[in-house]
Amino acid sequence: xxxxxxxxxxxxxxxxxxxxxxxxxxxxxxxxxxxxxxxxxxxxxxxxxxxxxxxxxxxxxxxxxxxxxxxxxxxxxxxxxxxxxxxxxxxxxxxxxxxxxxxxxxxxxxxxxxxxxxxxxxxxxxxxxxxxxxxxxxxxxxxxxxxxxxxxxxxxxxxxxxxxxxxxxxxxxxxxxxxxxxxxxxxxxxxxxx
Length: 194
Hints:
The protein has helices at 2-25, 163-190; strands at residues 32-37, 44-45, 51-60, 66-75, 84-96, 101-109, 115-116, 118-120, 123-135, 141-151, 156-157. The chain is α+β, with helices and mostly antiparallel strands. It has a domain at 27-157: Immunoglobulin-like, CATH 2.60.40. The strands form 3 sheets. Strands 2, 4, 5, 8, 9 and 10 form a 6-stranded mixed beta sheet that branches. A hairpin with a 5-residue loop joins β9 and β10. It is flat and about 80 Å long.
């Protein structure tokens, strides 16, 4: 009887520990959400060769306070995977508590030479990456990133053309077939005739 009570007590403590552990041992990490505001739900226009004012809402959804350190904006003007820093700004260690938001307004100088591969409604589009650096009350620096789609009137739009890759692949297969045939021919010539 004592063993059953001990087992039940241990089981009860174990289940209580499992139930309480997320609260006791949960990471107290902040979570920032970045949203572009204005123009309703989009599209967000940034014509080539012009300066456009954009507003980003930075909302702290996490349980701890944060201090906004710096905001950075990146763009890939040639859509080559090479992101370029086009704007960086100190955000003055702005104190952001849970469920509070800040509006970061910056001027985006869109380069005049942009090649946009994506089409929506006839307008070329590019991606803009917003990077926010913030620190926790303990002084640890972290960051939050978000990608936004911008409609770019005046950009030269082009479809992605995969045909060169198929041509290169076809040439490689053809070269491999020629090498295999030559090896087979040379090995058959080396065999002594009976």
